[in-house]
């Protein structure tokens, strides 16, 4: 790697001031699990990195409120995995993290970094989107709120300005909602997925009152499968209905090919795993046990 400057501001607001929206060689760094790989591979050559490791401890905490959880952006994925509050309010997150990379990565990688990186293969974004999570983002103009589902704009791209940082994630309490996440891999269980499907459902097999289904990895960004949601919402579960939802999901998105599978393969997996995720959520088998 080429030499670079490393700055360690003591606060999030100070970190924002050090970011230069006109200089692509200045980047924030949290856990660094993705950024350091890019640097070692020669994909990214920073002139200056703004470390977030010494900002306020408040951004590394998890605290519940009446509606759910406030998760600081510097909270590690390992911290999420081990949190009793996350297990209580959003058990789908805990179950998902068990197959996200490995324990060494989870102990370093942060929630904010996992979202801001914009990698469509990550397991956490589709789960947070299906749960209806929102973000608090801080920039020079102050704070703004943003739904996680509105954050991703393309392949490794987000709507964040170059001088904005994620401060925290708010996750509504899962409560009685039924949920499942299926990770389809061609390798080990903790490998990057060829397809990720998250489903969160209010209601039961007799009538699904509200349905949120999100796909990742097979598409250029994590995306809600709204056509499939429309097919399912307000209806009772049947094999025919689930098949229709799978077809609607596959017809409603554009697939990308990579080393984990062709576009045609991922399209067929989408049909299968939308059906499986909805069925698994309703019967209490999330596919990760």
Q: Could you explain the architecture of this structure?
A:
The chain is α+β, with helices and mostly antiparallel strands and 289 residues long. The protein has three domains: 47 residues, 2-Layer Sandwich (Uridine Diphospho-n-acetylenolpyruvylglucosamine Reductase, domain 2), CATH 3.30.43.10; 116 residues, Uridine Diphospho-n-acetylenolpyruvylglucosamine Reductase, domain 3; 106 residues, 2-Layer Sandwich (Enolase-like, domain 1). Helices cover 31% and strands 25% of the residues. It is built from eleven helices and 14 strands. The strands form four sheets. It has a five-stranded antiparallel β-sheet. Strands 11-12-13-14 form a four-stranded antiparallel β-sheet, with helices on both faces. Helix 9 runs antiparallel to helix 10 and helix 10 packs antiparallel against helix 11.
Characteristic terms for this protein:
Uridine Diphospho-n-acetylenolpyruvylglucosamine Reductase, domain 2; 11 helices; 289 residues; four-stranded antiparallel sheet; five-stranded antiparallel sheet; Uridine Diphospho-n-acetylenolpyruvylglucosamine Reductase, domain 3; alpha+beta; Enolase-like, domain 1; 3 domains
């Amino acid at each position: 790697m080429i030499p670079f400057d490393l700055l360690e501001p003591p606060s999030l607001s100070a970190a924002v001031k050090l970011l230069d929206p006109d200089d692509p060689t200045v980047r924030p760094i949290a856990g660094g699990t993705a950024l350091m790989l890019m640097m070692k591979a020669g994909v990214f050559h920073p002139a200056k990195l703004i470390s977030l490791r010494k900002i306020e401890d408040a951004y590394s905490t998890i605290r519940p409120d009446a509606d759910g959880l406030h998760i600081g952006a510097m909270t590690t994925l390992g911290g999420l995995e081990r949190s009793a509050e996350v297990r209580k309010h959003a058990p789908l997150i805990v179950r998902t993290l068990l197959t996200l990379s490995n324990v060494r990565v989870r102990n370093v990688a942060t929630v904010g970094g996992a979202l801001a990186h914009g990698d469509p293969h990550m397991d956490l974004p589709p789960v947070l989107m299906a749960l209806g999570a929102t973000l608090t983002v801080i920039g020079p103009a102050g704070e703004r709120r943003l739904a996680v589902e509105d954050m991703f704009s393309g392949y490794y791209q987000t709507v964040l300005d170059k001088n904005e940082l994620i401060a925290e994630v708010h996750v509504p309490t899962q409560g009685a909602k039924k949920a499942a996440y299926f990770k389809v891999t061609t390798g080990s269980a903790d490998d990057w997925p060829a397809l990720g499907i998250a489903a969160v459902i209010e209601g039961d097999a007799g009538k699904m009152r509200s349905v949120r289904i999100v796909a990742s990895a097979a598409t250029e960004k994590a995306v809600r499968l709204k056509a499939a949601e429309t097919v399912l919402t307000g209806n009772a579960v049947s094999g025919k209905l689930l098949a229709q939802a799978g077809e609607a999901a596959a017809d409603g998105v554009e697939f990308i090919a990579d080393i984990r599978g062709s576009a045609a393969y991922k399209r067929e997996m989408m049909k299968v795993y939308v059906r499986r995720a909805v069925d698994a959520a309703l019967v209490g088998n999330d596919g990760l046990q």
